[in-house]
Design brief:
Elements lengths: L1 H23 L5 H18 L14 H24 L18 H24 L7 H8 L2 H20 L7 H15 L2 H18 L6 H26 L6 H27 L13 H11 L13 E2 L4 E2 L4 H7 L3 H24 L3 H15 L11 H31 L1
Antiparallel strand pairs: 1-2
């Protein structure tokens, strides 16, 4: 039975990826970003099953992903058929930059953000009783309110700066590193990873970067480095411990735990009979909270799972994308939500074929980055899924207005 679950998933994955490439003539699709990272993490989870202190993997948990991928594929291929029927003959993603390149106003925005957060860091250090690297300091620094919203804006700018980086704009590294450091201080690994993944996806889709052995190597090294840096920061600065061989092994175990916490969390959860099953409204948390704030209802829902399971190394409360969706839905809701999400993603993909500007593509690849993190958790019940697309579109308007102003100014000088 264990072999049957794995074999079924592998056959399904092979068929889906083959049909996906035939339908869209591209590997830069929502299905690819959802499926491939999960397969890698699942292989690691199975390989570590019962080793180095990790719990045994519960193979029936794979079935939830088998079903989820099937229903995610239905709108995928229906929209591919629609696109082909109505003349979308080249369905590869393309990004058409303005001849003027990156708007100059974006540089000013980036500098302003760095100055504001430098001030915020100075104030927080002086007023906080906690040290940089602790969760408490991160919460005070930019965990809520105005600074929490502004931190999301930093993530959007980070995506775009990564995209615009080239040999003529190497100075953008200063802004990229500065904005990334803000996310490191915030100590939430998702907010570090997702903007970078989005920016890299944009570069790959536009042809600015290609998938090579060196690219894969740097991707793996940078991912490991981010994890180790955040843990070393907590160990050295907060706990004032010396780094030695035992600490490195301890961090490595936590890295593997983090990497497999979603798949193992779902595995343990299913084996225990899903004790954390909850109401469907949890999936709609950002929309419910927004409505409550507009209507004057002060109630704020939290989507954070309160139940932690032990993986043999540490605790986890994440269940992968389809796992979390499953525990908060019935069978019909699970299928309908999965197909609805797929429909939105692939509708955006079709729109990017017609409207090839960088902003629509950024919204698409931001959603793809959330799907790519599906091996870890369901990210669509956070406020970011509303705020970040809105912020991207606001930058689109700022870009448009700034270019009109420059054009008008040149016209006046010519007259």
């Amino acid at each position: 039975m264990e072999f049957l679950f794995v074999l079924t998933l592998l056959i399904e994955s092979g068929v889906l990826m083959y049909l996906e490439y035939k339908a869209w003539r591209s590997i830069f699709t929502p299905m690819s970003f959802l499926l491939l990272p999960y397969l890698v993490v699942l292989i690691v989870s199975i390989a570590m099953s019962g080793k180095m202190g990790f719990v045994e993997f519960y193979y029936p948990s794979i079935f939830i992903w088998i079903v989820g991928l099937f229903f995610f594929a239905i709108p995928d291929f229906l929209l591919a058929g629609y696109a082909g029927k109505y003349g979308y003959t080249d369905l590869k993603s393309g990004i058409d930059d303005s001849p003027a390149g990156m708007p100059r106003v974006f540089v000013l925005i980036g500098i302003a953000l760095l100055l504001l957060f430098s001030y915020r860091l100075f104030v927080t250090i002086r007023s906080s009783q906690y040290l940089i690297g602790s969760d408490q300091f991160a919460e005070e620094f930019a965990g809520f309110g105005f600074w929490g919203h502004l931190k999301r804006f930093c993530s959007v700018m980070l995506m775009l700066f990564i995209y615009y980086l080239d040999k003529n704009r190497r100075w953008l590294w200063l802004l990229i590193v500065g904005l990334f450091l803000i996310n490191i201080i915030n100590m939430v690994k998702g907010t570090m990873i997702i903007p970078c993944v989005t920016g890299v996806m944009l570069r790959l889709a536009s042809g600015k970067m290609k998938i090579t052995g060196a690219f894969v190597g740097w991707l793996i090294l940078s991912s490991v480095a981010v994890f180790f840096v955040t843990f070393l920061l907590a160990i050295v600065v907060v706990n004032k411990m010396e780094v030695n061989d035992k600490i490195i092994v301890w961090i490595f175990q936590r890295f593997v735990h983090y990497f497999s916490s979603g798949t193992l969390g779902l595995s343990v959860d299913m084996e225990l009979g899903f004790p954390d099953s909850g109401p469907f409204q949890v999936i709609w948390t950002p929309f419910i909270n927004l409505i409550n704030q507009i209507s004057g209802n002060g109630e704020i829902l939290s989507p954070v799972n309160p139940i932690f399971h032990f993986t043999g190394i540490s605790l986890t409360n994440v269940r992968t994308m389809f796992g979390t969706l499953f525990i908060y839905t019935n069978y019909l809701q699970f299928c309908l939500y999965t197909m609805g999400l797929s429909f939105i993603c692939y509708s955006l993909k079709i729109i990017t074929v017609r409207l090839t500007n960088v902003y629509i593509n950024t919204v698409l690849y931001y959603l793809c980055a959330l799907l790519a993190m599906g091996w870890f958790e369901f990210y669509f019940f956070h406020l970011d899924i509303i705020e970040i697309p809105v912020m991207i579109l606001i930058l689109h308007v700022i870009d448009w207005v700034s270019r009109i102003s420059v054009t008008d100014a040149r016209t006046v000088r010519t007259i």
